[in-house]
Amino acid sequence: MRFRGKSVRRKITALLLVPLTALVGLWAFSVAITAQEARELLAVSAVSDSLGRPAEAAVRALQQERRQTMVYLADPRNQADLRSARTTTDHAVARLHLAADTGARADLNDGAQQRLDSLLNGIGRLEQIRGNVDANTTTRAGALEAYNGLAEPGVRFVSALHLLENVALDRHGRAVSGLGHAAEYLSRTDALIAGALVAGTVTDTEQRRLTEGAAERRQAFATYLPDLPLDDRQAHDYFWQVGLGHTLTVTEENLISHGEDSIGPERWEDVTSAAATELRSLADAASDRYQDEVSPAATAVLTRAAVAGVAGLAAVLVSVFVSIRVGRGLVRDLRALRREAHEAADVRLPAVMRRLGEGQTVDVETEAPKLEYGRDEVGDVGRALNTLQRAAVEATVRQADMRRGVSDVFVNLARRNQVLLHRQLSLLDTMERRTDDADELADLFRLDHLTTRMRRHAEGLVILSGAAPPRQWRKPVQLMDVVRGAVAEVEQYERIEVRRMPRLSVAGNAVSDLSHLIAELLENATVFSPPHTAVHVQGERVPQGFSLEIHDRGLGMTPAALAAANETLANSPDFELSDTDRLGLFVVSRLARRHAVRVTLAPSPYGGTTAVVLLSGELLSDAVADDTDHRAPLPDRPSPPALLNGPVDGPVELDAPVSVPGPEPLRETLAPPPARRRAEPDVPLLPRAAVPEAADA
Questions:
Q1: Among 117, 199, 405, 492, which residue has the least CB neighbours within 10 Å?
Q2: Do 518 and 480 meet the contact criterion of CB atoms below 8 Å apart?
Q3: Would you list the domain boundaries of the chain?
Q4: Minimum mean pLDDT among 337-341, 524-528, 589-593: which range?
């Protein structure tokens, strides 16, 4: 019997028809389960009489001894009641041990046997607990927890006797077990409050535990009462709505609301004892009614088991055999298909994307080979996988080509803008030297500054596109001048306060990128901080090189935003068009990766954000930059007034323009015009003379 090459539909039909034909045999298999269910049902009555009732008696005796222990610890004069309760407990425990030593234990399932052992082991600690109580070496809270540890296993054991495979009886049995748990909650709160009232004070902790115990009891009844027969439900409803249960609830609420002054210990004992006695009677009646239902149910189960036969066993075997054969064939085909799908998704396609990201050429035919499959539906899926894989590779290649094209367009546009901006800066330089009017000079300075910022933004497009910056220096430039040049490219430069720094020089190949990087961070610091505050820039040597810190006094960043920003700065991910609101971070990340500069953001001691730029020693030197190969400073060029003319506290140390030595432009050399005297502008502007001029790339 071969199913290879058949359609998936036929295979599924074969898997379904044979089991359906073998339903009679499957019913025979259920005979064993039915017989087990019948045996359990028949054993329930015997086990409940031989072990269940002694266990219930032991639990109730422990509950009463727990209450008397709490009263005794509150007032040692109640020793007689405690002694009587202990005697009752000893008798009940002795009967339980006697019952456990009989053959009834063999009728218990594994879970019930474990719970019985837990109960007996806990009772073994009873003498130790009593000794601690008699020696007054335990508190009421400690004694309460100790007795809770003895009673709880007993309640669980009795509950395990009511768990059956029969659905209807199991629900009824669980409901009866739930009544036992609810009675235990009542007994615990009774013991707790009885001791507290005798002591004369109900603490906040005891009131809280009373509230929790009452809530747990109500929850237990609300959960299990709906599964009881109608008569039992009506009896319990009357108990809680009209009878002693209602009185108990009102008493608890008064105690919770008004404290120990609302009720005395005698009244509390009268209410709880009467309610507990009535509740035990209701639980016993429900348990008896449950036992009366078990025997007829067992008889019905045995009848069904006798009707069922073993005639379908052969059909079951055939069904299993056929299912295994067909299933193995399907598994083989599907595993092969899954292996190919994983290889395409996890190996080939990521490799293609990685190579395209590195600028390599990808051959679609090589990276998306055509795989051969069978002629069934699994083969159709495999061929669809081939098509999908090829389409994915082609789409990835097209997307990479499109991204390269867009990057080239950005670079082209940025280069054109840079040429125009360079010419505009040269023209502004000539106009600044030529004018004598202070107002006109101030406007020219403003236009000069805006043009410088436009040049930085154009360079940002080039950097995001992966191209090299157009401005380059042939010789080192002092670090202080690089920082000042970065300040000059920031709109609110007058708010920036630069501390004196060591006389270090920056390698010429890193001057442009480092100045741009610092300018982006300064721009971010000024934009996201109040306009009346200063942005502090300071630096110092560190073992790894030089640390430059930029502090602002803004609102700062949330931990999540800070972590995301540092992740971008550290890993330099690919720029996405959806991330246009974080252009500065991507530019800084690209520049930092290019020169192995570490940039991190952290909370500022001033309440805002601190940007830390760590320059490696390879970018720095102690040599003083040479001025012989750079443009001469403008003669008699007026110095602008102080940079800070607003409410910012403290002086800004950029108090004069600095002509940073830079290489002559490759295309033209601007000779300084004759010196001309002119009035100073009355606006706080930083002239372009503070920005290092670079040679064209």
A1: 405
A2: no
A3: 48-307, 339-467, 468-696
A4: 337-341
